[in-house]
Design goal:
Length: 448
């Protein structure tokens, strides 16, 4: 069987490119724009009457309004406009994939280049963090008590909106608030301080109670509240189900990223790391492995680049870091005696048929097996719901919880949102689902 050279360095994009510059700035944890740049950028906005950017933003931030406020030097007002719509304003300002949301539909993009909406959003919210938050507004109190289980983006988005509607909210989480952005998104992309400033702001509206929810506590929480919102995300990594997966050196991706974020000095990776996957999470794992000192990092994906569901900036950054990305390769087994020595792979080709996701189905090519040297293998092929205490809630494909249009599950009074209902998504989508579920809960309780 042929052995392949995994140490080949791919071409590094021009350092002067916008993406490279932007990423360097992110690495240095500096604000992306200064006041002058923000003013100039805000003056490019056409203030469209139909504001496609506002429709494309899942939390429907009034983009033209906050940009016009930056233009007139009312930066704190601009931050208020962003924050009132999006509970994780700073976090989204830093890492929201605007290329698939607001910025993708910017009318100015048809003339020359789209307005840098996320950068302006971040400029405004960061300015407020530096100055201190405006006084908290009081909302008329209701006599309804709602439980929110999970304090990731969906849970926080829901709790914030519920308090704005005057309800009492009890938020429960096994960990500190923040969910995946706190635990798993690498600190070179999201420094702790952006999330901290959001959770500090939100803590003036509600507190998060530390509680590992299980079947018994879930029943108790339901009895003690008028409604419950579930937002426990996807905490379990999918594995490949191939031989050798239990060998020392094989790491599920969330475990790998969590350890690397919490205690990077204690985290050791081998010299030759192979990542299996084709999404943004696999790119984070690859870039993390590089930063932890791996000599070679190879990402293998069973389809071609066209089918990869990744943000272009992330892909370019991984390549800039020296990650080698190899397409049309399927892992067959992990090899080694007690620890990983390599990964047996098979080449694939794309058939003409598409799967449910609309992507071409890869077919293995007989007799094309080869071995990649590796001492660490990270499996990054997706996540599923970890909670096994959800009882009889109806599920859909992938095991995700089925909800109606108003985010209510098959159990009356129990609502759900975020990744656990839709699969792996984004922070802004989860915040948005939490926000609109809160409004639906408000209507449900008002009609009772
Ligand atoms: C590595 C990685 C990188 C990402 N990068 C980006 C990015 O750059 N931009 C972007 O927009 N999105 C990104 N995402 C996606 C985004 O983080 C998720 O879509 C989002 O966090 C989902 O929010 P959620 O509230 O549904 O769940 P989560 O964020 O998973 O939060 C769930 C919460 O529920 C709690 N919980 C779970 N079980 C229990 C229990 N039994 N008892 C009590 N509490 C419990 C957890 O502790 C957690 O706090 C990334 C995801 C990953 C994995
Ligand atoms: S939250 Fe995201 S989509 Fe919405 S305005 Fe900000 S960058 Fe754009």
């Amino acid at each position: 069987m042929k052995k392949e050279n995994v140490g080949r360095r791919p071409q590094i994009p021009n350092r002067k490119s916008k993406i490279a510059n932007r990423q360097l700035q992110i690495d240095n944890h500096t604000p992306l724009m200064n006041s002058r740049q923000a003013k100039i950028e805000s003056e490019r906005c056409l203030q469209c009457f139909d504001a496609p950017c506002m429709t494309a933003c899942p939390t429907h931030i009034d983009v033209p309004k906050f940009i016009s406020m930056i233009r007139t030097n009312n930066v704190i007002g601009a931050a208020e406009v962003v924050k009132v719509s999006n509970a994780l304003a700073n976090t989204c300002g830093k890492i929201c994939p605007e290329e698939v949301f607001c910025q993708s539909v910017c009318t100015r993009g048809k003339q020359d280049s789209p307005i840098q909406i996320r950068e302006l959003h971040f400029f405004a919210t960061q300015r407020e963090v530096k100055r201190g938050f405006s006084a908290t507004r009081r909302f008329p109190a209701s006599d309804k008590k709602i439980a929110v289980i999970g304090s990731g983006p969906a849970g926080l988005g829901c709790a914030f909106e519920l308090t704005k509607l005057g309800h009492q909210v009890d938020v429960y989480d096994a960990h500190k608030p923040g969910g995946v952005p706190r635990k798993s998104i690498p600190s070179f992309r999201l420094a702790g301080r952006e999330l901290e400033s959001d959770t500090k702001f939100l803590s003036t509206f509600f507190k998060v109670k530390k509680q590992v929810v299980d079947s018994r506590t879930f029943q108790r929480i339901q009895r003690e509240h008028d409604a419950t919102f579930l937002a426990v995300g996807l905490g379990r990594d999918r594995m490949l189900g191939v031989a050798g997966e239990k060998l020392k050196g094989v790491l599920p991706v969330l475990q790998f990223l969590e350890k690397a974020k919490i205690a990077p000095s204690k985290m050791k990776v081998g010299k030759k790391v192979v990542i299996v996957g084709g999404g943004n999470v696999s790119l984070d794992a690859a870039a993390t492995a590089k930063r932890l000192g791996a000599e070679s990092v190879v990402l293998i994906y069973r389809r071609s680049e066209k089918e990869m569901r990744v943000w272009k900036g992330e892909l370019a950054e991984a390549r800039r870091q020296g990650v080698e990305i190899r397409f049309l390769i399927n892992p067959v087994s992990v090899i080694g005696k007690s620890k990983v020595a390599g990964i047996k792979c098979r080449r694939t080709r794309l058939s003409k048929q598409k799967d449910k996701t609309g992507r071409l189905i890869p077919v293995e090519i007989k007799g094309s097996d080869f071995i990649l040297d590796a001492d660490t293998v990270v499996i990054a092929i997706g996540q599923t719901i970890e909670a096994n205490w959800l009882g009889d809630l109806d599920r859909k494909g992938g095991g995700y919880v089925k909800v109606r249009e108003d985010f209510q599950t098959s159990v009356p009074g129990v609502f759900a949102g975020g990744d656990m209902i839709a699969g792996e998504g984004t922070i802004v989508q989860s915040v948005s689902q939490g926000k609109y579920a809160a409004r639906a809960i408000h209507e449900y309780l008002s009609a009772k």
